[in-house]
Structure prediction request, 351 residues.
Amino acid sequence: MFILNRVSSRVLQYTTLPFGFLSACYRSSSRRGPSPYSSVDSERYSSLVKSVTSPRVTARTPEAIQEEDEHMFGPVVKAPSRPETRLLKIMHPFLHSEDTPETDDLESGPPLRIVLNRDQGRSSVPSVTRILQATLSSEQLFYLERWKRRMVAELGEEGFKEYTKNLFRKGKLFHSAVEEVLMSGGTLKDKQHELHPPEVLGYLESISHILEDVSAVRVIESTVQHDALNYLGIVDCVARYRGVLCVIDWKTSEKPKPFLGNTYDNPIQVAAYAGALNNDGNYKYQVENGLIVVAYKDGSPAHVHKLNTELMSEYWEKWLIRLEGYREKRSSEVSSASSERRRETGQSRAG
Prediction:
């Protein structure tokens, strides 16, 4: 009886043996003599047996079993995945000590805009965006691929291509609209936003309260390059936000991003831009702060994420780690390609 009490509550709960097999086992055991379980109160356990053997009961799925196990014994504690850690080998300064500190007289005149020209010895210089994309972690790649598969399943291959194309188009229109507002020195209160495409009106309304605190615009959509570290990027804006000089990055999102962590690699991107600007001879000042503005299509107030000097230094180091990883990856790819060419050359000569 003690054995049955231990087994019946667990084994019978999960057995899927057909009733005919149980009956056969019972007849077989009866020929050998009285069963030690003959004294079991069968009426007491009849409902349990019926729930296991009845074809009218819903099949027991692994999910249902796991749910019952968690209810009885608590949830299974999964070991957290180890983050991919990498240490920085060489530290490069974020600020350029030889440059003069930023002064008010540099804020006079129109905003600077240096257009990217790949023909001016920049064809082999990688961009910040390319480096970040090439050094995504395995976890980032996993979630990115999962998101892409889900979107393809919903929209189809062509639909997904059209979706991404529209995202880039709207982002470009939004940046152009913000640029026009900042260049004109106006605000959205003067009805100027009505002249922009309807696709961006919600985004402009979203950042209207932010633009009121932006002043002394120095840079708009301008190329910055770090010669020593050999990378470049295009800065959205350099201006004062509530009196503090910042590298400003305008972003659009379909989902709310109220926390800095929701912006993924954007803080690293801003730190990379600022570090390049600080070491670019075309800019005669230093920028130590950053600002990420996330605008929403429905016009809801944009989220603002400030990057003070401490955070910028932290993300600058993360950027240097990604940059080192990119260089090592590129070096490995070049070495592999060279080895492959030598192998093919050897085979052709042998042939």
Confidence is low (pLDDT under 50) at residues 1-30, 44-65, 76-80. Strands lie at 214-226, 231-241, 244-253, 289-296, 303-307. The first helix runs from residue 2 to 8.
